[in-house]
Amino acid sequence: MAQAGEMTFWDHLEELRGSLFRMLAVFGTAVVALFFFKGFLFDRVILAASKPDFFLYRLLGADFSLTLVNIEVAAQFMIHMKITFICALIVTFPYLVYEIWRFIAPALYEKEKKAVKGAFLFASVLFYIGVAVGYAIVFPLMLNFFSGYQVSPDVENTFSLTSYISMFTSMVLTFGIVFEFPTIVAALSGLGVLSRKVLKTFRRHAICAVLILAAIITPSGDPFSLMVVSVPLYILYEFSILICRDREQVIELE
User: Fold this and answer.
1) Which phi-psi region, left, alpha or beta, contains residue 221 (left: φ > 0; alpha: ψ -120 to 50)?
2) For residue 251, what pLDDT is reported?
3) What residue ranges do the domains of the chain occupy?
4) E strand or H helix at 160, and its extent?
5) What are phi and psi of 236, to 5 degrees?
């Protein structure tokens, strides 16, 4: 480590404690603030995809709306709490990433800092792009498909608020996290651990991995859901190949 002789174990532990305290303080503040914006949060953001004026439906010319029902006594309160925590995580994500970087940076050599710093700066951008893709494209398309799918005209679709929120959070958070893949690739590439050639070599394996991951994200396993989820994930892999350096490029930079 770059500063092993300057900081003791207890110094690092104290620094970790300070980082965790600041992260919890910022996250807690966001939770409290968002809790009081229930109307805006649910009517304008969370439940927007259930309404016919959602921008993707207007763009595609789709006539779609969904009526949700609640069948559990405490579900609405628990969902309010759950969504508040998730939205607080999304809002504070850049600061949380900054605190993580601030903690690990002193343990890196200057060469390693330069390689990893760019990836950390890029992490928040990719996270928000992933959240946006899950929220604005994948989730409403899947919702539209399932709401209109029937095994028989005699069976009417009625969706509960709980199932809606479950699909919403899984799509939004999963895509936000999965879109961090290029960040990991950029960091490993900058450190000389991973090269573009390796990613190209394992492209066919990546396709299988993407399909498996898509099947995990969409337990229903229907072809439409697999396609909607798989396409953005594979595009993400190809983007990772573009930003990944060859080993020769890393050596030249050094």
Assistant:
1) left
2) 40
3) 9-253
4) strand 159-160
5) -65, -40
Please state, in angstroms and rounded to a whole number, the distance separating the CA atoms of residues 51 and 47: 7
Written in H, E and C, the secondary structure of 166-220 is: HHHHHHHHHHHHHCCHHHHHHHHHHCCCCCHHHHHHCHHHHHHHHHHHHHHHCCC
pTM of the full predicted structure? 0.81
Cβ neighbours of residue 241 closer than 8 Å, sequence gap 6 or more? 196, 199, 200, 203
> What band does 157 get if pLDDT is binned at 50, 70 and 90?
confident
| Nearest to 229, CA basis, from 150, 134, 155 | 134
Question: Looking at residue 36, what DSSP letter applies?
Answer: T
136, pLDDT greater than 70: yes
Burial of residue 157 (CB within 10 Å: 0-12, 13-18, 19+) is exposed
pLDDT digits (tens, 9 = 90+) for 190-225: 777 788 888 888 888 888 988 888 887 775 666 777
For 157, which DSSP code? -
Give 16-24 contacts, CB < 8 A, sequence gap 24+: 16/103, 19/99, 19/100, 19/102, 19/103, 22/99, 23/92, 23/95, 23/96, 23/99
191 class by beta-carbon count within 10 Å (0-12 exposed, 13-18 middle, 19+ buried): middle
Q: In the chain, what is the straight-line distance between the N-terminal and C-terminal CA atoms, in Å?
A: 19
What is the DSSP code string of 47-95?
Answer: TGGGSTT-HHHHHHT------EE--STTHHHHHHHHHHHHHHHHHHHHH
40 versus 220: which is more confidently predicted? Answer: 40
